[in-house]
Input
Amino acid sequence: MNRLLFIFNPTSGTGQVKAALAPVLDVFTKAGWITTSYPTQCKGDATRVAREPIRKLAPSDRLMKPLMTAYSYGLSVDHLIFGAAAALHFNCPEDEQSVELMKAIETDGVEKALEKYAGLKPEDALFTRILDVYRALAVAKKGS
Output
């Protein structure tokens, strides 16, 4: 059985995620997933939970597996794409995988990193969508 960990900040966006959470989790439950939602509890909590981005980007792990499954069912995957793109931005010097991922992106580019760690190919529809969100997040980071 597949597992999905949905991490969310219950106070972000004036708490709007609370209303959308049940339908999202219901879709995955109906597709045979064991779902767990994790509301962050304090500052730094999401960072702690987000560690090891390379493992989580693997085709069989908690980011790409739910993304590919939902996509294969024709479900909306926008939020899951955002999660995969955000994992490519996870930059935590105390996390070995984060350091490796950032070095791979700097050395070979995000496209090669996405291929290597997520198992996607440039011709895959999700490849371009993840890269588009990755680049949009990069622009947003520069502006903040």
Summary: Residues 10 and 16 are 8 Å apart (CA to CA).
